[in-house]
């Protein structure tokens, strides 16, 4: 009954509106006219903003290889490399000071929660060597430099990310804590860069700390890596002290990429991730040639051909440019729909043009194996889908299907370490909502039979059980370790008498090698 009364009142109101005097008609027309003009003005304003944005499309043709520097930041855990990357982004105007979140390039939720870098991230910056950052846009006499920065993880479990990143660089900033000095991953990352023949710039960070001792750290760098103490840059990424010397050092000490724009296209596939709308987005380093939107490219690994639908740079997010030239690092969208099509280390080239493949990465050496099973057996396909998408973004994980009598269908996954395994599990849950059961991690063993054949066992269920084959030896993993200690701590030198080992003195430390 109440609904009928409400409809009746609404009908009466409409009748009263229809009886409005003609004198109000011009007012209504004027009001409608103003509304229409307002909509037209808003539309024109929106269109002008689009045109203004289109005028600011980055012209990468202004940056020949000699105007490009590709470098990464390598360091031990918590030595300040991500904070240093933030300051460099602010110095070049890539992000506004104080508006970005701390550790801007640490974008994963797991990175935020744990306070560590898990994924290497690439960002393109523009820097004028003679003008202030705010004057870069007005400098017409000399084009700024294009700097591609790659922030890398510091934990040993993510060393594969570091090695892939260094393949796209010609130099590296070796960041060392002024208080802690050279640490384990400082040594490991230095030799990764050294073996890649990169120009290394030592950066002693956190000099604002009360316990900082830059002189001791420079002596360590000299004795262990033969790095000239005069080349070390003393900085504090937290306070900004000494940061003004880093970018000039990058430009003067790191060589430009050696490629040529007129050579046949060769691109290095550095990384990839899956987007629900665009498919697989590949991060590439253009070694030779030029890539444009609409080009058809082929993969050396698979032989498949794709058409480039989008190409651009990370500045700091995806910015379409329509083209990538030799020496530049960016992203490519080519219509890949399966994560198996994007193979890290692959060489991409123009279709129907034969090129020499680029040297790929060393395969990841898996140290820990664990089984992953869906908490609900009916979610196997969903877990399979999630693992495929995640391994597209983490190529260092090996995955094989297996069956357990207790847990059903699942996967046997290989990881670089326990932290790597834990982070992979956490990303499955956070990014894909997967509920999993993981088995106790194991290490691989090698069994040798009486006939001389050997088999690697990664799962206890695969232990030899054939009575006709007699096992003569079982090999387990061992570690060859180098322990670096202060010269005052001479106690470990006596441990060499117990096992196989050797000692040698340096001016600031004693190095012990064991196996």
Automatic annotation (TrEMBL):
Catalytic activity: GTP + H2O = GDP + phosphate + H(+)
GO molecular function: GTP binding; GTPase activity; mitochondrial ribosome binding
Entry superkingdom: Eukaryota
EC number: 3.6.5.n1
Residues in Tr-type G domain copies: 66-258
SUPFAM superfamilies linked: EF-G C-terminal domain-like (SSF54980), P-loop containing nucleoside triphosphate hydrolases (SSF52540), Translation proteins (SSF50447)
Residues the record lists as binding GTP: 75-82, 151-155, 205-208
EC category name: hydrolase
InterPro entries assigned to the protein according to its UniProt record, in alphabetical order: EF-4, EFG_III/V, EFTu-like_2, G_TR_CS, P-loop_NTPase, Small_GTP-bd, T_Tr_GTP-bd_dom, Transl_B-barrel_sf
Membrane topology of this protein: Peripheral membrane protein
UniProt entry keywords in alphabetical sequence: GTP-binding, Hydrolase, Membrane, Mitochondrion, Mitochondrion inner membrane, Nucleotide-binding, Protein biosynthesis
Keyword S-adenosyl-L-methionine appears in the UniProt entry: no
GO CC list: mitochondrial inner membrane; mitochondrial matrix
Compartments it resides in: Mitochondrion inner membrane
BP-aspect Gene Ontology terms: positive regulation of translation; translation
Function: Promotes mitochondrial protein synthesis. May act as a fidelity factor of the translation reaction, by catalyzing a one-codon backward translocation of tRNAs on improperly translocated ribosomes. Binds to mitochondrial ribosomes in a GTP-dependent manner.
Similarity annotation: Belongs to the TRAFAC class translation factor GTPase superfamily. Classic translation factor GTPase family. LepA subfamily.
Protein name: Translation factor GUF1 homolog, mitochondrial
